[in-house]
Amino acid sequence: MTVETAKKRIIESGLKFTHQRMVVYNALQVSADHPTAESVYEKVKEANPSISLGTIYKTLENFVRAGILKKFTDDVGVMRFDPMLETHSHLYFTDTQEIKDYKDPGLVLLLKKYFEENQIDNFEVEELSLVIKGKTK
Amino acid sequence: MTVETAKKRIIESGLKFTHQRMVVYNALQVSADHPTAESVYEKVKEANPSISLGTIYKTLENFVRAGILKKFTDDVGVMRFDPMLETHSHLYFTDTQEIKDYKDPGLVLLLKKYFEENQIDNFEVEELSLVIKGKTK
DNA sequence: TGTCAGCTAATAATCATTCCTATTTGAGAA
DNA sequence: TTCTCAAATAGGAATGATTATTAGCTGACA
Ligand SMILES: [Mn+2]
Ligand SMILES: [Mn+2]
Ligand SMILES: [Zn+2]
Ligand SMILES: [Zn+2]
User: Fold this and answer.
1) pLDDT 10s per residue in chain A (137 long)?
2) Which fold has domain B3-82?
3) Cα dihedral B120→B124→B129→B133 (10° resolution)
4) Which residue is nearest to nucleotide D17 (CA to C1')?
5) Which residues of chain B are in CATH 3.30.1490 domains?
6) Nearest-CA distance B14 → chain A (Å)
7) Tell me, which fold does domain A89-134 have in CATH?
8) Is the CB of A93 under 7 A from strand D?
């Protein structure tokens, strides 16, 4: 079932279906955190020892271009890949280094409304993202 | 005058005053953009050809630790140094690659208030920063 | 069954940043 | 003023993440 879903998703995004793409796809769907290319590599390599790190990078990049994943650069400059496509913010845990999703439609609306009412001179807002740093309470 | 101000600022931050520190300090005070270590190096090297890139990095880092500068990682993962110490946001110009300051106390209050009223489960917010991407209108 | 465009593995190259170390500098002690 | 020593610097090597290159492989399709 997971295999079929993955296959379907990959093919309908316009990419050819391959074993490597499937395992990378699945690794991301089950990940709660926001894995780096390196951590996807480590995970995938367990069952697929011959896969190369370059393929991981290229596959992730292809998925981003195809709209299957998003990517962002974390606060130390490392690329993170994110299977959640809807607009959301990230919580940076300064104690554990985790990055968790924070989805809040109310906040999105609030910000959108704010910038509609308070235009910035000579600037057209295209994308807003809030970086939230803090720690476990 | 600039020299004396720089000297004063560096010494009162607890650092020894050196020529290298002065020129790096001044390069940042006059910069409108948010320079990288490399761009500070290029600028400073004109009048100080023997300064080394390692010294630029170390000096900038010392200034950050001393509270004279702030630093952040831009959207492609490169370190940026910022002489504006007060809380503010950054406008990322997707067309020109510029990063400009956007200071808006109203927005800061709005966000602060929002997160006081809408607590996040098991998370204590320490720092909020809004990344604003867009282009010249 | 043969072809060919697209994939992949392996490895080299790049880029930003940090580390290392021999040498220099300069503030304070004598 | 001269001496001394910790701190600072220059220059280059090392590191880590990412991208580029390329030769060989694979699988859909004629
Ligand atoms: Mn790095
Ligand atoms: Mn990098
Ligand atoms: Zn996310
Ligand atoms: Zn700024």
Assistant:
1) 567 788 888 998 889 999 999 999 999 999 888 999 999 999 999 999 999 999 999 999 999 999 999 999 999 999 999 999 998 999 999 988 899 999 999 999 999 999 999 999 999 999 999 999 999 98
2) Arc Repressor Mutant, subunit A (1.10.10)
3) -30
4) A78
5) 89-134
6) 27
7) Dna Ligase; domain 1 (3.30.1490)
8) no
